[in-house]
Amino acid sequence: MLRSVAAGSTEESLRLYVPDDALLFSSLDARRPGYARAVECARAAGYEPLIRLAGGHAAVFLETSMAFAWASADPDASLHIRPRFERLTGWIVAALQSLGLDARIGEIPGEYCPGEFSVNVAGRVKVMGVGQRVIRGGAHVGGVVTVARSGALREILTPVYDALELDFRPETAGGVADFDPNLTSERVIEAVIEILRSEGYVLRESNLDSSILRAADALIPHHCPERLPNSGAALRASTQTRGTKALIQDGELNQTLQRSEENDT
Q: Which residues, 6 or more positions from 200, have their beta carbon under 8 angstroms from its beta carbon?
């Protein structure tokens, strides 16, 4: 979707959806000594392990969460990383506040996948993680708002972060339903839509077309947890946004992946 939007063949897209259970590792995680053991922990607990092309560290998507994926065109995408983070997290915070929660932007010491634009409740519990990937002509901001099953979240993150030898305080991880048991993923999605409409956005529902789905199928091998991403030179962390989770993808990798996809198909 990001490539299509960046190329101008598809309109800007914001997906709000309920994901399957999955544990998303970053390319940084894949280079840590305990990565193989962390992948084993994820599989043993019933979570599909994947490599994501964004910064940060291991994050969990639960089927009781709300995931988001915002792809937008921008000829100067690498210059506007921070404004996109601010815009997306602003929508989420406003939506959660409209549901009666004390939502705030900011990192909590000891949180999983720490980042400047994490969203927490009452300065105590992280409920949303977000990362950004930038390519020539566009950017993708994606992440997840945890709603329920916070016990399961902490249960899987603890051994995974132990294996990766990363700091993690389990009490900082939770979901919005910890503060209001009546909240559901669908209600959070509705709240975000209401915020967007209040800001003047015109929204219309759309399904992913077959060409996008075929392109996604071709990319599956690049997210296999056993394949170490060849991101050393081609994927680089943004030096303009310290404390955020953003990676800039250079054009050379784009061409390399495109050739690989052509071979795969």
A: none
Number of structural domains found in the chain:
1
pTM: 0.87
Q: Which residues of 70-95 are buried (b: 16+ CB within 10 A; e: fewer)?
A: bbbbbeebbebbbebbeebbebbbbb
**What is the SS3 assignment for 136?**
coil
> What residues make up the domain containing 141?
2-264
Kindly state the tokens that stand for 222: 């690049």
Residues 202, 111: Cα–Cα separation, whole Å: 35
Burial of 233 by CB count in 10 Å (0-12 exposed, 13-18 middle, 19+ buried)?
A: exposed
- Residues with Cβ within 8 Å of 264's Cβ and at least 6 positions away in sequence, in order, are 218, 221
| Contact by Cβ (8 Å): 130, 219 | no
| Alpha carbon distance 189, 14 (integer Å) | 12
Backbone angles phi, psi at 76, to 5 degrees: -120, 45
CATH number at residue 96: 3.30.930.10
Q: So what's the pLDDT on residue 257?
A: 39
Q: Which amino acid is at 134?
A: V
Tell me how far apart the alpha carbons of residues 12 and 4 are, in angstroms, rounded to a whole number: 9
> What is the per-residue pLDDT across 51-72, written as a single tens digit (0 to 9) for each?
987 778 999 999 999 999 999 9
State the DSSP H helix or E strand holding residue 130, giving kind and residue range, or none if neither. Answer: strand 125-135
- To the nearest 10 degrees (0 to 180), the angle between helices 35-44 and 150-164 is 150
DSSP conformation class of 246: E
